[in-house]
Write a structure and sequence with these properties.
Elements: H1 3-14, H2 21-36, E1 51-58, H3 63-71, H4 73-78, E2 81-85, H5 91-96, E3 104-109, E4 115-117, H6 119-128
Parallel strand pairs: 1-2
Antiparallel strand pairs: 1-3, 3-4
Helix pairs in contact: 1-2
């Protein structure tokens, strides 16, 4: 085995029992880098959650939109999600992104054009921001 493998193996045995295996591995790898005088890797930039604001594209009379608004009512009230009707104030964005089905989420990026976002990526954004 390599010196690194031996080090990590020993480190994992002594690591906090409350941590998950990936957390332990990350901690042990960090200790190894520190021991060897190696720099920490640069933080990964998550392009999917680089949203300045999130838009919920909807339309009047849409029962699913109503349900989604209810699920995200606290985020909407707090201003974390802005609701736009695709036939009113959201008409230009809906046209630009070819949004024909609602509800749909749009990530307004800090830089660059807005982007239609799939549901899993929205959940990832809210998790990163500490909502759950």
């Amino acid at each position: 085995m390599s010196e690194y493998t031996d080090y990590v193996k020993d480190c994992l045995i002594g690591e906090n029992k409350d941590k998950t295996q990936p957390e332990k591995m990350k901690t042990c790898a960090g200790k190894w880098r520190k021991k060897k005088g190696l720099p920490d890797p640069p933080p990964k930039k998550d392009k999917d959650t680089d949203c300045e604001s999130i838009l919920l594209m909807s339309m009047g009379g849409c029962p699913t939109c109503k349900e989604v608004k209810e699920v995200f009512k606290d985020e909407i009230k707090a201003g974390d999600i802005q609701v736009m009707d695709i036939f009113k104030e959201g008409k230009e964005i809906a046209k630009e992104l070819k949004i024909k089905d609602v509800p749909a989420f749009v990530c307004k990026k800090k830089r660059g054009a807005p982007k239609k976002v799939k549901g899993g990526k929205i959940a990832k954004h809210f998790k990163k921001e500490g909502y759950y």
